[in-house]
Amino acid sequence: MIYSFLRSLLFLLPTELSHTLSLKALVLLYRSGLLGILFPPLPDNPQRVFGLEFANPVGLAAGLDKNGDYIDALGALGFGFIEIGTVTPRPQPGNSKPRLFRLPQAEAIINRMGFNNKGVDYLVERARNRQYRGVLGINIGKNVDTPVENALQDYLLCMDKVYSVADYITVNLSSPNTPGLRSLQFGESLRKLVQALQAKQQALALIHKKQVPLLVKIAPDMTDDELVEVASILGEAKIDGVIATNTTISRELVKELNHGSEAGGLSGRPLTAASTHIIKKLDEHFHHAIPIIGVGGIFDTQSAMEKLNAGASLVQVYTGFIYRGPTLIRKLAMLAFGRSS
Q1: DSSP-based three-state secondary structure for 315
Q2: N or C: which end of the chain has fewer CB within 10 A?
Q3: 175 belongs to the catalytic site
């Protein structure tokens, strides 16, 4: 009830401003010690997935904390894991504002942020100094001015720099807000990219004496035939894990709403069914051999269980967290997620 009231006030402000103010207020509560009183630690519901121990199966999706500025405060809310980024080799401002839009009638958000971030060196320093002891994922991308044919170099550079501070690394090939990026999800482009990143992963494992899992985040806007091709390549490569899915470019369920025609990636309830379908098809192809993190339109235990039943080993929230608040984490954290590897 309190969060609903606070949300109604925040929703009076421009979307990006309200997100920033909310995160800064969260940090103040964390530093004052009030956050620990308001949200006491959750009992553990451990899950072991791709060789990592998760205190519970609920994570924060990439995009909310792009630079690692809020890891400790967000972690205090009870997340079993947090994914920061997307980060690029060099700082970049992202797309021009406004670039973030609420669609409250659909419990959705459209963003065209464009990988705005302070660069990988800044993020690594923030990650290195974190107090949060949960699993930390780092989501890597390419700079907007790096040609798609040279994207691998950006991914390799980011991977090299984040490896020592990451518990897992996500390769973002599926944001709709960086021109040409989604083409890297298919065919020989995907095969060569994954092979090169896995070779780098093995070299870094020897240097740092630890194996950091490599995940690929895919889009929901594939045909079943395209998905089979992607799943075949990732399966042959024995990728450590897949995140399904990123935001959608479809507007079918929101085209009549205010802001429904804005360019960018759509997240929230309109994505629920599409992301669950992708998870189901992936798991059918992988035969449970490759763990999947399910994300997209999770607002309650029912939508989270749909992801689990479709084949997810863990879930991530973002838009549901914005609309429902920290109580959503606590409701989902004790779900019985059974697939581990």
Answers
A1: strand
A2: N
A3: yes
> What pLDDT score does 4 carry?
87
pLDDT confidence of residue 337? 58
Distance CA 288, CA 304 (A): 18
DSSP-assigned letters across all residues of 149-218: GGHHHHHHHHHHHHGGG-SEEEEE---TTSTTGGGGGSHHHHHHHHHHHHHHHHHHHHHHTS---EEEEE
Which pLDDT value is given to residue 336?
64
Residue pLDDT, tens place only, 8-39: 999 999 999 999 999 999 999 999 999 999 99
Which residue of the set 18, 174, 175, 313 is catalytic?
175
Q: Does residue 340 register a pLDDT over 80?
A: no
pLDDT at 297: 98
Question: Strands 265-268, 108-111: parallel, antiparallel or unpaired by DSSP?
Answer: antiparallel
Q: What is the mean pLDDT of residues 261-278?
A: 98
Q: Which residues contact 49 (CB under 8 A, 6 or more apart)?
A: 241, 291, 313, 314, 339, 340, 341
- Round to whole Å and give the CA distance between 288 and 325: 32
Answer yes or no: are the C-beta atoms of 179 and 151 closer than 8 Å. Answer: no
Q: How far apart, in whole angstroms, are the C-alpha atoms of residue 147 and residue 89?
A: 14
Cβ atoms within 10 Å, residue 199:
11
Q: Per-residue b/e over 205-234, b at no fewer than 16 CB within 10 Å? A: eeeeeeebbbbbbbbbbbeeeebebbbebb
Domains of the chain plus CATH, in order, are: 2-332 (3.20.20.70)
Question: What proportion of the chain, given as a percentage, has pLDDT over 90?
Answer: 96
Mean pLDDT on 54-60: 96
Query: What letter does residue 85 receive in the DSSP assignment?
Result: E
In the block, tokens 């949300």 appear at: 7
